[in-house]
Specification:
OB fold (Dihydrolipoamide Acetyltransferase, E2P), 10 strands, four-stranded mixed sheet, 2 domains
Amino acid sequence: METALHIVFERIEPSDFLRRRIEREVAALEKRYGRITACKVSVEGPGHRHRQGGLYAFRVALELPGGVHLAASRNPPSAQSHEDAYVALRDVFRALRRQLQSHVRARNEEPKKSFTQPHGVIERLLPEKDCGFVRADDGREIYFHKNAVLGEPFEALRIGAEVRFSEEEGRDGPQASTVHVYGPRHRR
């Protein structure tokens, strides 16, 4: 997190056990859903509330990259199970996980593009430099190192062999991170 976790205890003595449990819950959220920029957790102890008697109340506010704010609270008036702080804590983080799941789903709901791995043919091989070049179907020349070749040794590659590859941006332009021969293997 960019900002330290902030935990506030109201009408209850600060508890190292609750603090550690909260830290574990927040760490689990961050590990599963990505970066959390800030988190504030408020723990309200039992008693001193009019209708709820001896129930714990939790409020959690998260800030995510891009200024997204999510919040969850658990302060049900009749949930006797919330007389146990750990049950109330579990419930508030469950609610927050559901919100995060919805947020992640909504962020990824753009129409999925059908992904087909790029393909081309081996155009040049430079065995003395342990590399070669693929001519992609779109006409671009893509560099690859011998360590990117899958399924057979680099030395067995031939010019004109059809390949599928995974492309990434390299230091000097596009490069193939994996190259897999799938078509007829031509001679040099």
